[in-house]
Amino acid sequence: MSNTANAKLQIEKVKESRVSSIDFSDLAFGKTFTDHMFYCDYKNGAWQEPKIVPYQPMTIDPSARVFHYGQAVFEGMKAYKDDNGKVFLFRPDQNFKRINKSAARLAIPEFPENYFFEGLKTLVNMDKAWIQPGVGNSLYLRPFVIAIDSAIAAAPSESYRFMIICAPAKAYYKGTVRVLIAEKFSRSASGGVGFAKAAGNYAAQFYPTKLAQDRGYQQVIWTDADTHTYLEEAGTMNVFFRINDTLITAPISDRILDGVTRKSLIQLAADNDIPCEVRPIKVSEIVEASKDGSLKEIFGAGTAAVISPISAFEFQEQVYELPEVNEHSYSSRLKSKMLNIQHNLAEDKNGWRMEI
Amino acid sequence: MSNTANAKLQIEKVKESRVSSIDFSDLAFGKTFTDHMFYCDYKNGAWQEPKIVPYQPMTIDPSARVFHYGQAVFEGMKAYKDDNGKVFLFRPDQNFKRINKSAARLAIPEFPENYFFEGLKTLVNMDKAWIQPGVGNSLYLRPFVIAIDSAIAAAPSESYRFMIICAPAKAYYKGTVRVLIAEKFSRSASGGVGFAKAAGNYAAQFYPTKLAQDRGYQQVIWTDADTHTYLEEAGTMNVFFRINDTLITAPISDRILDGVTRKSLIQLAADNDIPCEVRPIKVSEIVEASKDGSLKEIFGAGTAAVISPISAFEFQEQVYELPEVNEHSYSSRLKSKMLNIQHNLAEDKNGWRMEI
Question: Matching InterPro entries, A to Z (chains A, B) (predicted)?
């Protein structure tokens, strides 16, 4: 069934772009935003007129439900520019489907498909001067929906705002990442919202991650809440393990995000004759594999980081070091293949690129 | 260790109160707010000057972390007025401790004790004309903290806003409540944030609750995520069961909120020679007790609802009806005792009232 709506996109342009004032060589992730933003309000049971306006603060009541009950979901996507100035999105259909899946789980009305794509494409096109060409550069796109009812009853909001904001980006994680495997804290419950990009899932990880950082780790790898014996995902990434020549990643579930990078890497592995198993993987299996030398790699996978190699993990107060990454590592090979597809430098046999 | 700060509370009063325009006989919960609000911003590593200003919308960037990562916690409290016009809070020390416990779990800096109490008391005193006397009437107080950094990196915010807003209230649930016992969806994981009043905990319940409502139930009683065999809490309430003459409620844990009403009822039960057991309670135990007639009552307990009697529950597609509530029911007796203490109509032997 198609999910479309009929209002015309309204556009108000900035008088003068800020892009010439930006030092693209020195950008902190997610703090600089482009000239414009997209938004569309839901009220009286329907999504209203979608709009692109100059990026600006919003006015919102202190009683807005998003502040009190965390009724908010988001997506992370990127736009890429090739050396000829062409601009591409990467599998935006996946993000569209997922934001509505996340929304449904949080009792947020689904967003119309045509508003999403028209808004996204028009916005990226208007602000394409903000996209630097070159592998590693991108424009990070953040669609999100928040509950804006001025009412503090603990019930779903009757009004929402869908927005897209854009931030020029370089690679998210710099350097190698050391991770702590969770033994006490948890990210999500079976039957909960772990599979959704629900805002509250992220804040819940900040404190355990801070504790890990205080001990010299950049991220936590989450395990199942019941037994802490199965490896699930990292804070903002899915996780892959390489034992001997086989990649392994956990199956998605209601606790694990259905990552676009994750599923693309599984396909790329198949395309490149890299054996890849999607199955539950125990902490004990990677501990044993590390001890006998068969654990070759661990890496995180996500839109922001693309692929983030992990250099060591700690579990039960033991630290396990991984071999150094080189150009033959799966993480290097797959990352290069992903980036080349995203930046229009390689054939796109799976039809993942969408030119704007 | 005392947790205090030194700035003087700044006050800006409304020119004219709106209170005379309010129809207190016809108030939807949480949609009408008093003349003033309290707020205090955190930046540069410290809580800044606390302020009371006219209630008003706020200006916030679309990239504010609260919108993206749900870094937000809150409290629910009430102020009561007796027939002589005296105003009381109920165990505000418990709410103060809990908001900072919630904050710590979400990597939010703790709020100073003196700012909390001076802000709360001054605000309630300024807006006390909004409190109707009479049992059942109250002023609902909503302290909350939100992450306001303009940055979408998935990490704790460096700036926050602590606020208190106030809404005149009557009893929260009207009529009897039928509940569905969760068999698939979950509220929280061991090692997660279920014990905290974290915003995201609430949005995660809206969809399963809506499904329950579509089937004629007002609330869900959550069970443990691992096995769905233990009764934990209702959406916005702790839950008590009466089997024969004994009250039973689940122990608090990292999955269950340490409710102020819950702990007050446990003490009131002791004060009134009502046997009360705090122990894990299985769904099968109340199913059996319902079948053999020993299950006399189930009720929810929380600040908003005080006590909310449950008239029926469904589990595994079987509906179990509870006996009708009368004035001898524990729910009636305990609710009456709580309200009388809160409204200064009974002795306060535990020292729970704080006069403003």
Answer: Aminotrans_IV, Aminotrans_IV_CS, Aminotransferase-like, B_amino_transII, BCAT-like_C, BCAT-like_N, BCAT_family
